[in-house]
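Build the 3D complex.
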Amino acid sequence: MKLLSREALLSFRRAPLLSALSITTIAFSLFTVGLFGLVAVNLRQALRGLEERVEIVAFVLRGTPSETIAVASQDISAFPEVKDVNYVSEEEALQRARTELVEFRDAYRDLQVNPLPASIEIRMKEGYRDAASVDRVAQRLKGFGFIEDVRYGREWVQKLDSLRNITGLVGLVIGMAFAAVAVVIIGVTIRLTILQRAREISIMRLVGATNWFIRGPFLLEGALKGLLGGLLSVVLCYAGYILFRDKSGGTLSGLVFFRPEHMALIVVFGVLLGLCGSLVSVGPSPRGRCLSASWASTSIPSGLRLSSTSIGAAVWRTNRSSRMGRASAL
Amino acid sequence: MIRFNNVYKAYPNGALALKDVTFHVSKGEFVFLTGHSGAGKSTIMKLLFAEQKPSAGEVRVSGYNVSTLKADDVPRLRRRLGVVFQDFRLLEDRTAAENIAFALEVTGARTDTIAARVMRVLTQVGLSAKSRAYPRELSGGEQQRVAIARALVNDPAILLADEPTGNLDERATRGVFQLLRDINAGGTVVVMATHDLDLVRQTSYRIIEMRDGSLVFDSEVDEPAAEAK
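Done.
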């Protein structure tokens, strides 16, 4: 392991420019993925804000006893999709209208009879704020006899659904495309290193290095480059985030950056990319496989011995004569 | 130690590099493999250290059957061989000692024994004073000695030398050749491919001559009677 790390680190020292280029390339590839991720995170944050507003309002028939509403509210709270339930009495509804609808304040003040019905406001749990879940809960609410009407802005929730789906799909496709580009780039840079070290690899083979011994340093090198590239890309993303946030003049002050686990994910992703790139470049075996040629045994010609015309034979005979001459002289 | 039985080697383009080559090398022998360029000397060398497999026939080296050798066993065979080339094949960014130590490290040798073993072979090849020199700081002959030391450090049973003096001047050639003879005198089989007939003439070692992929002369097989006289 010590030797493995030494060889991997040695390659950084031997080719500092190529290593720096590899790390920078990985960092910029991951930076592009990271920037896209940052956009996705902020878009998701914005969507979450919108989703918070997904609410079902069930209007209650006049004269419904408050006990009935209280029991029903408890039942509704037990729905798996429901986050919380809030009962708004007729008086509270009027009070709200007076506060929120300022332009009609006078009209509401002069009313002899409160025209606003009592209602139950239901907020959905995260993960159930899609059209299908909201519709399902709405249908269930309609089953209560004292519910006069249920409103939840069907079209708005459906649009939110589409937006979420499109964002997810585009994110997945572009993210994968960037990741694929990063793998190719990392693969190419590792391949360059291998080509640069072809001589060393051939010597390693020659002296009996095992397949894993040859591959190990390259895999470790790829992982290290991925790690450094990943860390650098997080720094670049942060710099980009700060720049963008500050240049926006406060309009984008609500932008969020990656959480620590997201940053760790980018770095781990970098390491995995580095490993994949190395694996792709090194292949299943960096060792020169034994060449096997096709051979038709039936066409094997018989060997020819040409000892009578051989240069070797002549040399041998000369050597023999000189030896014999030396022997007879003695 | 080495057995070639009716060995053929064909390349994908159909060219025959070896045609029905048969020879055996016993313990302690020094064998010259001679012939012109393209005669098949290097192919025999490649088969010997399992860089290639024969297309037909059997190649046995130090107990391993190269014809059926699995990829995982190739390193095991090579650790029992020492291989030296015309172009030395040293790592330029490592010192002489580091080049030799590298051959031990890749085989997983105990680290506390490496320095002593490296110094032993460097002394054997007469370069103990230049252990810290980089290949560029050494002459051709010295570089070849480092390569030989690297080949020797794993105590191989067989030393394969493919044109080891091809890049050397006469003086360095004599030195390297003498070193190979000394190694052989210690009991190691030496197979030396060369087309330097002057070198071959200097000794009475066995000669195997190749021509166009065929073995055309083997002094042990073709001239034993004459030698006996």
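Chain A has two domains: 2-48+161-282, 55-151.
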